[in-house]
Specification:
heterodimer; A: alpha/beta; Rossmann fold; Beta-Lactamase; 2 domains; 6-stranded mixed β-sheet; 5-stranded antiparallel β-sheet; 11 strands; B: alpha/beta; 9 helices; globular; ubl conjugation (chain B); Ras-related GTP-binding protein A (chain B); protein heterodimerization activity (chain B)
């Protein structure tokens, strides 16, 4: 590895772990803990104690059934849980018990906020959330100081069993008060997103999907690829899933119907559960994974492995599946294109360590245009930056 | 053929919840909506076409219990094929539970001495996982001792996992009249098509009614798990107003096919050679259909088809 000494002071090590890990202030980033240069969106999960973070983590990433989360002991100290190797998304979950003030100096905020793409703050909608809002304000202010590119996402959690009216009411109230708090602190420019979530339905997966999609710079490319793939294969709708978390990281541009998404999630459950029984849990999802489900309303669900994290789930009419050969061929093209997109990202990232990193965002937009306009994925190689 | 099944146990022990999950397509979460059962609720469940389970879900409040043993004694306990007695594992009044259980056995001994007895130690999900085995063992011993001279089979169950399917699968299999013939045919079928495993599910409940394995599998609870997995998926399909017809799941190590089989069953075939084209297995399944259909409904045609070939 060589560094361009003109751009970098000798003592800063620009290391990119998540997307947009560079912060313009040149603050030091997290030391290379994983030793991998894979580019994954990194997400922090925070919130008061008993707000449901551990449950979210268990349900979304460890396949615990929601009712079992009742037995989870409350977390008594700062706990960091990395979900790295199995998922396309890199998650860090930080549990902050009430009695520890994370603004205290021992808390290494540079390290924590520096490399992260999104901060998810969980608020228990069934509880009095005054304290949570104060904590949230402090967290946002602190995090924004360290890393201005961080996305702030609020999960108004445990909304199961709450009527739609009071859901909207709490969302409005929390929205209003957090905005007021931030404008008092002179931080009007921070954008907050709100999601109503519950672990008892698919809303938590849907919310995570939206959070993750914001952190994937290649999203327009992926969507484009899907938009090309789908009509040419007679498919009605397709989701690109992170298999472990059942988060969809991209879909085509047709509208998402929650029920269809849920069915696709359930299909992934079936496929992984059956595969773990008849092969082994570790090898449940491998390069040969595929599944075909026929429903009696003339619909087919078709799942194919894309890479070790991702699967494509397609929904199509039964008569269109007669041309399975075409679909499979198109799928292989699609899969190759996707792997090239991620290879390119990796390559660029390595090169970015040598060249000026400021316009990382703009260059990527250029990549998308190139791929978007030509159907030939080899065009992507033109997007290589200068040496 | 009607078979009378008594479902008894203290009020709130979970009888109606489990019945609703197994026979009425409830999901576990929805059972919180169920109210207490008043007196006896009768339901007829058609099982495998010609077998009708006549379920007597007996409300467990004390007032009703006393009536069962007094004025309704003959009515309730006559012609019983199976008694399923449900114990709440967290119950604080074990003595009273046992008292009613023994009264029940006594009444049964007088009226239906041939009845089979099953005890379900229910709500096991409330016991922390590491203690479940020990707690169940202890209860099982107690129940076997208390049931003397009768024989009792105990199961640990919870509506939140596959244990419920295991218990009901075992109970129901015992009631199928031609279960041995079914088992033989399934084994024969599995050998002919060289399958690792063949499972036969009842269509409505997805309980495993027959199975054959030729290759060892480390997971001894897999039948119930598969029942549970498929039933959950079936329920999510029904949210969209659809039913699932067939399914194929494969990776580099195996290929599994689940397909509608006879009018009352689904079949699952597991093959360990994933290079074998799916069509081959599907054709074999299709060809076996007719034979199993006849086996289920022997009245429709002659039954001596034992040398039937699938290929």
């Amino acid at each position: 590895m060589s560094y361009d000494d003109d751009d970098y002071p000798a003592d800063t090590f620009p290391k990119d772990f998540g997307y947009r890990a560079y912060n313009q202030d040149g603050l030091e980033l997290e030391p290379n803990a994983t030793g991998s240069s894979e580019t994954k969106p990194r997400i922090l999960l925070m919130g008061l104690r008993r707000s449901g973070k551990s449950s979210i983590q268990k349900v979304v990433f460890h396949k615990m059934s929601p009712n079992e989360t009742l037995f989870l002991e409350s977390t008594s100290k700062i706990v960091k849980d990395d979900i790295n190797n199995s998922s396309f998304v890199q998650f860090q979950i930080w549990d902050f018990p009430g009695q520890i003030d994370f603004i205290e100096p021992t808390f290494d905020s540079d390290m924590i906020f520096g490399g992260c793409g999104a901060l998810v703050f969980v608020i228990d909608a069934k509880d009095d959330y005054n304290e949570a809002l104060t904590k949230f304000k402090n967290t946002v202010i602190k995090a924004y100081k360290v890393n201005q590119r961080i996305k702030f996402e609020v999960f108004i959690h445990k909304v199961d069993g709450i009527s739609d009216d009071s859901k909207m009411e709490s969302q409005r109230d929390i929205h209003q008060r957090t905005s007021d708090d931030l404008s008092e602190a002179g931080l009007n420019q921070i954008h907050l997103s709100f999601h109503l979530t519950s672990i008892y339905d698919h809303s938590i997966f849907e919310a995570f999907s939206k959070v993750v999609q914001k952190l994937i710079p290649q999203l327009p490319t992926l969507e484009n690829l899907l938009n090309i793939f789908i009509p040419n294969s007679g498919i009605e709708k397709a989701f690109l899933f992170d298999v472990v978390s059942k988060i969809y990281i991209a879909t085509d541009s047709s509208p998402v119907d929650m029920q269809t998404y849920e069915l696709c999630c359930d299909m992934i459950d079936v496929v992984i559960d059956l595969s773990s029984i008849y092969s082994s849990e570790e090898t449940a999802f491998d390069s040969g994974s595929s599944s075909l489900i026929k429903l009696n309303n003339n619909t087919i669900l078709y799942l194919r492995e894309v890479n070790k994290f991702l699967a494509l789930v397609c929904i199509l009419r039964e008569e269109n599946f007669n041309r399975q050969g075409v679909i499979d061929y198109n799928f292989i093209c699609f899969r190759d294109a996707i792997s090239k997109v991620f290879e390119l990202r990796l390559k660029r990232q390595k090169e970015l360590e040598n060249i000026d990193q400021d316009d990382d965002q703009d260059d990527l937009v250029e990549d998308h245009t190139l791929i978007g306009h030509g159907t030939d994925p080899s065009v992507m190689s033109r997007a290589r930056p200068i040496d | 053929m009607k078979k009378k099944v008594l479902l008894m146990g203290k009020s709130g022990s979970g009888k109606t919840s489990m019945r609703s999950i197994i026979f009425a397509n409830y999901i576990a979460r929805d059972t919180t909506r169920l109210g207490a059962t008043i007196d006896v609720e009768h339901s007829h469940v058609r099982f495998l076409g010609n077998l009708v389970l006549n379920l007597w879900d007996c409300g467990g409040q004390e007032g009703f219990m006393k009536q069962y043993f007094a004025s309704q004694r003959d009515n309730i306990f006559r012609n019983v094929e199976v008694l399923i007695y449900v114990f709440d594992v967290e119950s604080r009044e074990m003595e009273r539970d046992v008292h009613y259980y023994q009264s029940c056995l006594e009444a049964l001994l007088q009226n239906s001495p041939e009845a089979k007895i099953f005890c379900l130690v229910h709500k096991m999900d409330l016991v922390p996982e590491e203690h479940r085995e020990a707690v169940f063992k202890e209860r099982e011993e107690d129940l076997i001792r208390l049931s003397k001279p009768g024989n009792v089979t105990c199961f640990r169950t919870s509506i939140w996992d596959e244990t419920l399917y295991k218990a009901w699968s075992s109970i129901v299999t015992m009631l199928i009249p031609n279960v041995a013939a079914l088992e033989n045919s399934v084994t024969h079928f599995a050998n002919v098509i060289e399958a690792d495993e063949v499972l036969l599910f009842e269509k409505a409940t997805f309980l495993v009614i027959s199975h054959c394995q030729s290759k060892k599998n480390r997971d001894s609870h897999r039948f119930e798990k598969v029942s549970n997995i498929i039933k959950q998926f079936k329920l999510s399909c029904s949210k969209l107003g659809a039913k699932f017809q067939s399914m194929e799941v494969r990776n580099n190590a195996f290929a599994a096919f689940i397909d509608t089989f006879t009018s009352n069953t689904y079949v699952m075939v597991v093959m360990s050679d994933p290079t074998l084209p799916s069509e081959a297995t599907l054709v074999n399944i299709r060809n076996a259909r007719k034979y199993f259909e006849e086996l289920e409904n022997p009245n429709n045609s002659a039954m001596n088809h034992h040398g039937h070939k699938y290929h």
